[in-house]
């Protein structure tokens, strides 16, 4: 394999890993994808190391001559949750390994996956609202509380989307989301006595709970990727604290203004 093709393959492998890591894939899955892609083209030595914020790959065509070794590093700054892209890259890597797909064609496939648009914000908000409303039903909510949680969740989803578009950081975004959920719940519970504040808030903040981050933190830790596991756990904890701070700040502010009275 020529050095040019070696570099092109390495760029393609790190691009596939970048798409997966940026969209919520586990560390071991990203490393496995890198190793599969490189070893499928007769690299005797492949070593990959992935953390939540970076990808490191070293390959060698001969396995003995260190002069032929190439190392690439890729910094990951932003992450979202889009498991559809993770599944598509995972499927692509299997097809690439089992065939002799040209690298240029593989790059075109990856670019198509990377540029795939997510579900519209309207669709995300509506179904997120339905999920939040159904979760409030699990807590014993009535019909009015179901619709209150649904409305509040939709409002929170739209607001968080706008803040992310404006490049607000994770901490501020989730504080704002938690605060908005609490404020909307207070207003709705003030309008009707049968709407309980706690059920609406708990249901509405479900769209912000870092479920994927917590799951990946546990899976990475069990797999032995302790650095990534701790990083994902810290990220999940930061999000949870942000949500709690936003909700608590609004509730405490309302108590202060109303002299210790909340519309429970």
Characterization of the model:
With 264 residues, the chain is mostly helical. It has 2 domains: 3-114, no CATH class; 121-258, no CATH class. Helices cover 67% and strands 8% of the residues. The protein is built from 10 helices and 3 strands, in the order ααβββαααααααα. It has a 3-stranded antiparallel sheet with strand order 1-2-3. The protein starts with a helix and ends in a 6-residue tail after the last helix. The mean pLDDT is 86.
What are its keywords?
264 residues, mainly alpha, 3-stranded antiparallel beta sheet
Given helix and strand content, the structural type is: mainly alpha
Q: Can you tell me the number of structural domains?
A: 2
Helix segment tally = 10
* Percent helix range: 55-70%
The main β sheet shows up as:
3 strands, antiparallel
- Low-confidence segments: none
Shape category: elongated
Strand tally is 3
**Beta-strand content bin:** 5-15%
Question: What average pLDDT do the residues reach?
Answer: 86
Instruction: Summarize the helix and strand pattern as letters.
Output: HHEEEHHHHHHHH
Transmembrane segments: 117-138, 144-161, 168-188, 200-218, 238-257
Membrane topology: Multi-pass membrane protein
Domain Threonine/serine exporter-like N-terminal: 13-252
Subcellular location: Cell membrane
How would you briefly describe this protein structure?
The protein contains ten helices and three strands; from the N terminus they run ααβββαααααααα.
